[in-house]
Amino acid sequence: TGGVTTIDPGYKNTGSCESAITFLDGEKGILRYRGYAIEELAEKANFLEVAYLLIFGELPNAEQLAKFDKDIKEESHVDEDMKKILDGFPKSAHPMGVLSSLTSALVAFNPSSVDVDSDEAMYNAIVKIMGKLPVLAAWTMRKRKSLPLDYGDNSLGYVENLHKMMFSRPNKAYETNKVVNDALDKLLILHADHEQNCSTSTVRIVGSSHAGLFASLSAGISALWGPLHGGANQAVIEMLEAIKADGGDTAKYIEKAKDKDDAFRLMGFGHRVYKNFDPRAKIIKKSAEEVLGDLGIDDPVLDIAKGLAKVALEDDYFVKRKLYPNVDFYSGIIYRALDIPTEMFTVMFALGRLPGWIAQWREMRLRKEPIGRPRQIYIGETERSFKSIAER
Ligand code: SDX
Predict the structure, then answer these.
(1) What is the CA(273)–ligand 1 centre distance, in A?
(2) Among 258, 321, 322, 349, which residue has the most ligand 1 atoms within 8 Å of its CB, making it the best to mutate?
(3) Which terms under GO biological process does the entry name (predicted)?
(4) Which is the catalytic residue, given 94, 194, 271, 278?
(5) 3-state DSSP call for residue 39?
């Protein structure tokens, strides 16, 4: 048979590891990073603090946070030859494919990031990618907009600097905006980790072969790209735009989502673990209303989203299957309000998930987990003899 008697497609009922990083309770809609409730962290912490907490296990004191910030800033440059790789892509290339490629290419310019057999080597690889991924993400966006590839300003905070690298213009002073900065910081916190989801499991299994942190992250970025996973935040906005173009006919799309003969799914709805509201969706929905209000934006797509959620949450098909809005359902509405292009939404998810992926990879390496290598049930041909081409 190939060694096992039962399989578990999609690992719906399989645990892959023990982990002390993130706790989810799907029935109660609970999400905690290292024991701290996501609601508290989203309100009281900043993204770099949460990144430190996830990776090293404790909230940093002022000295630890200052050192982490400084070490990351010292690594927030990228070898100039990386621009030649970025240059090779057509402007139409999807930013997730570009980011995954550039992340893997980083290994060539940072060979010491592969062998992390000491705490120091591991720490150095971690601060390198924490510093460089935001640059690569911003450059990916600037390439599409035919803007010069430049750096931000290390006097700014981590998230503010990311925003400046994405949006600065050569001929216009960059103005920071507290509403924008706080919204982005909160969104990155809410995306920072989510136990053994598809992309994190990918990072762990690639890392389990000791392929190195950057190669593992490159694989994780590719897994996140899929519309059933992180790519859903882009798919949600495209769906809401389609409904808007269709005269706001949400009922038609609800019926399409229920139709088994139609591949269409209500994007941003449903979750493998949450069989209740995704706690992140609750916070993001509230934040979307606040941000649009503060920025004086009246986005009809938010109203369509709320209308769609209301109908779906009362529809037997969704109620029976316990399908609720997930993290991706409202996040795109905030990204839009921040003028982030739709095709960059999943890149923002990747930037948020970066510390979670790193934390999970580090835990896997420190616990010396074995290489991931599941078995199968063989259902192919029994033994048969070779036929020459004349006999076929
Ligand atoms: C993320 O895992 C994580 O933690 C992921 C994430 C993270 O932080 O890392 O939370 C981020 O990826 C959120 C999910 C984003 N994806 C989407 O919004 C895409 C739409 N959602 C679905 O494709 C789906 O709900 C999944 C992929 C999220 C979960 O899929 P499962 O757990 O494999 O569930 P399933 O496909 O077996 O569905 C169970 C039933 C099926 O119907 P029946 O066969 O029982 O009749 O529910 C139906 C499905 O057809 N269903 C949906 C639906 N989601 C599930 N029907 C219509 N629309 C949907 N969105």
Answers:
(1) 9
(2) 321
(3) tricarboxylic acid cycle
(4) 271
(5) helix
Could you please report the per-residue DSSP string of 218-269? HHHHHHHHSTTTTTHHHHHHHHHHHHHHTTS-HHHHHHHHH-TTS----TTB
| Distance in Å, CA 264 to ligand 1 centroid | 12
Contacts of 28 (CB under 8 A, 6+ apart): 276
Cβ(266) to ligand 1 under 6 A?
Answer: yes
Q: Is residue 271 annotated as a catalytic residue, yes or no? A: yes
Q: Which amino acid is at 338?
A: L
Asked if residues 305 and 299 have their Cβ atoms less than 8 Å apart, the reply is: no
pLDDT by residue for the chain (392 residues), tens digit each? 567 899 999 999 999 999 999 999 999 999 999 999 999 999 999 999 999 999 999 999 999 999 999 999 999 999 999 999 999 999 999 999 999 999 999 999 999 999 998 999 999 999 999 999 999 999 999 999 999 998 999 999 999 999 999 999 999 999 989 999 999 999 999 999 999 999 999 999 999 999 999 999 999 999 999 999 999 999 999 999 999 999 998 999 999 999 999 999 999 999 999 998 899 999 999 999 999 999 999 999 999 999 999 988 999 999 999 999 999 999 999 999 999 999 999 999 999 999 999 999 999 999 999 999 999 999 999 999 999 999 99
